[in-house]
Structures are given as structure tokens and as C-alpha cells.
């Protein structure tokens, strides 16, 4: 049995302890709230610092679409030069200006005068001058094309096989080898039995061309060939 005074003392002690426990609980809650706020603030500070330091990923610029250009494949012709002279091989493409005809010409420094394959040679007079009408073969075809030119002069040719002389008509013709354009004298003769329809001799080569006998087709004709003879005698 507990005495009444002891009960009151015990009750008072319990109440006091209960109040202390309540105050400790309140303090604990306040401490937890404070720590939570501090933790949130610290977390936000860290996140903000990370956001400021880390750049947002950026996509690389899209590559530009290539512009489709059409290359100009046309050629103005080619004729390499040394000391101002055209370098040619032993065979070259030869364009007879004004006719549209292109032949494989033999380059022969042993021949004095150039010559062109001509058939049905007929002399006639025009306005008091001596002219000649003749046919030239069309390359790659069986046909002939008729040309007329004023006669420049006549030359005597001695055939080495027969020791007989032959008088040939000489005319001036304008031609191109590569991008080199020139007018020169050609004898007209039937070259059907020979390998080349055109022979380029010293009268053209002299002071104008150098022959590299180790080459063929060292020049290249332009794509746009002149359709008319300019009459330039240079």
C-alpha cells in the first residue's frame, strides 16, 4: 500500500516527466523541420550549380546539300608549244576549214610542199583568174565533196619511181592542227594509193612546227570547228 503523500509526489513527477517528453518531442520536430529545410536548400543549390556548369547538348549543324553543277566538257583544242612552235607527232588530226572534213595527216619533214588528195581536177577561168575544181574524199564514207579554189601556181614534180615529171596545181587552203589555224599552199594530187589523204611538208613545218617522231596525235582539235574560211593568209 502506497501512502497518499507518496502518490501525489509520484503523480507530480510523472506530470513533470510528461511535460519534458512533450517539450523534447516538439524540439525534435522543429529540429527535423530545420534539417529538412536546410537539406532542401543545399540540394537546390547543388542542382542550380550543376545546371549552370553543364551546357545543354546541341545538335551539330545539318550538312549543306551539295550543289549539283554541270561540268563544261567542251574543249578549245590543244597544241603544245616549244619556243612558240607547235609540237606535232608523225600523224595528226587535220581539219580542212570550211568543209567539215577531218583527215589523219602524215607529217613529213622530207617533203618540200604539202599535198592533198584530189580527184577529177578541172581547171577553169573565173573573172580573168585561173581556178580549179576538184573533189576530195569524205573520211569514213565513199563519197566525194567538190571544192573550188583559185590557182596559186603550178609546180613540176619528178616521180622517183619513173624519173618522169608531173605538173601539179597548187592552191591555198586554210586548215587547223590542234588549236593552231593556218593558211598554206597544197599541191593537188591523187593520193588514193597512199596511206594518208593529207601530207604536211616543210612549207608548213618551217618556223611553225616541231616534229616529235615518237608521238602520234600530239594535238587535239577543238570541239567547235570553224565552218567558214576566214581568208586569213597568216
From TrEMBL:
Region Disordered, annotated ranges: 1-21
Domain of life per record: Bacteria
Entry keyword set: Hydrolase, Protease
Comp. bias regions, Low complexity: 8-20
UniProt KW Disulfide bond keyword: no
Gene3D superfamilies for this protein: Acid Proteases (2.40.70.10)
Gene Ontology biological-process entries: proteolysis
InterPro entries cross-referenced by the UniProt entry: Asp_endopeptidase, Peptidase_aspartic_dom_sf
Residue ranges constituting the Retropepsin-like aspartic endopeptidase domain according to the UniProt record: 87-218
MF GO annotations: peptidase activity
Name this protein carries in UniProt: ATP-dependent zinc protease
Amino acid at each position: 500500500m502506497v501512502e497518499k503523500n507518496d502518490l501525489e509526489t509520484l503523480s507530480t513527477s510523472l506530470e513533470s516527466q510528461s511535460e519534458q517528453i512533450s517539450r523534447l518531442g516538439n524540439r525534435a520536430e522543429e529540429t527535423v523541420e530545420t534539417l529538412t529545410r536546410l537539406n532542401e536548400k543545399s540540394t537546390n543549390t547543388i542542382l542550380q550549380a550543376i545546371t549552370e556548369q553543364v551546357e545543354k547538348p546541341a545538335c551539330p549543324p545539318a550538312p549543306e546539300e551539295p550543289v549539283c553543277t554541270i561540268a563544261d566538257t567542251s574543249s578549245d583544242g590543244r597544241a603544245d608549244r616549244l619556243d612558240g612552235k607547235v609540237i606535232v607527232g608523225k600523224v595528226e588530226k587535220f581539219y580542212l576549214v570550211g568543209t567539215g572534213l577531218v583527215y589523219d595527216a602524215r607529217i613529213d619533214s622530207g617533203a618540200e610542199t604539202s599535198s592533198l588528195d584530189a580527184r577529177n581536177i578541172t581547171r577553169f577561168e573565173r573573172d580573168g583568174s585561173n581556178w580549179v575544181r576538184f573533189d576530195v574524199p569524205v573520211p569514213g564514207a565513199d563519197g566525194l565533196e567538190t571544192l573550188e579554189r583559185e590557182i596559186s601556181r603550178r609546180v613540176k614534180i619528178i616521180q622517183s619511181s619513173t624519173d618522169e615529171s608531173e605538173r601539179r596545181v597548187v592552191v591555198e587552203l586554210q586548215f587547223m592542227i590542234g588549236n593552231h589555224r593556218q593558211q598554206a599552199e597544197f599541191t593537188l594530187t591523187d593520193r588514193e594509193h597512199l596511206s594518208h589523204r593529207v601530207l604536211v611538208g616543210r612549207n608548213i613545218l618551217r618556223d611553225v612546227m616541231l616534229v616529235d617522231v615518237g608521238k602520234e596525235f600530239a594535238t587535239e582539235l577543238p570541239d567547235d570547228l570553224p565552218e567558214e574560211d576566214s581568208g586569213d593568209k597568216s
